[in-house]
């Protein structure tokens, strides 16, 4: 059977680009989505038309019960899991910290941090040799914001991604002897819809001059890094934070 990959937040942007590339490499796919059912269904049909074995499962990764149901569906449909791509994430409108309330912080950390931890937990229970698994790979989608801090825009998002970096490093060491590699990509300014969520759809054009390469990145460029980390060509790579940021 094909190797099975779960991509959270797969309906758009980096998640969708990763799904297309993984399908081309022969993976069977579970496409997780939360709100964007139409986009997820369209991607699912596209992938199935190429002969890819794929399913789409709605679940809020910040909800422990829904995460359990997501992984139970993978168990039922595929009977195995080889790769988790922790891609689901969100940010809110740009503002300074002194304008943020606790409700916003809880929303941002629930999806970006708690969601990634819950999905990693369930993946480990299926992949780890400690639980009778055959090993696997976890790729977390962090952000270069974790290194830069995103001042005056969304330092809460940056801090959440900093937590993902720390989780990547710690979990990689916890499960290295159990057949699981854990790595992260840290995308820079990438042309996806997430910038609209922050209130500035044209953000890439505004900040691209600050990128040493002088341009924004494409979702496909991040997907290439994710697929490399997920696969056997990265067999001796674990605990890595791979910047895909044009040199920032």
Automatic annotation (TrEMBL):
Q: What PROSITE patterns does the annotation carry?
A: ADH_SHORT
Q: Does the keyword Mitochondrion apply?
A: no
Quote the Pfam families the UniProt record gives.
adh_short_C2
Q: Check the record and name the CDD domains matching this protein.
A: SDR_c (cd05233)
* Ketoreductase domain span: 3-183
> Which SUPFAM superfamilies does this one have?
NAD(P)-binding Rossmann-fold domains (SSF51735)
- Which superkingdom does the taxonomy of this entry point to? Bacteria
Give the keywords, sorted: Oxidoreductase
> One MF term in GO for this entry?
oxidoreductase activity
- Stored NCBIfam families: PRK06123.1
Sequence similarity: Belongs to the short-chain dehydrogenases/reductases (SDR) family.
Q: What is this protein called?
A: SDR family oxidoreductase
Natural source organism:
Stutzerimonas nitrititolerans
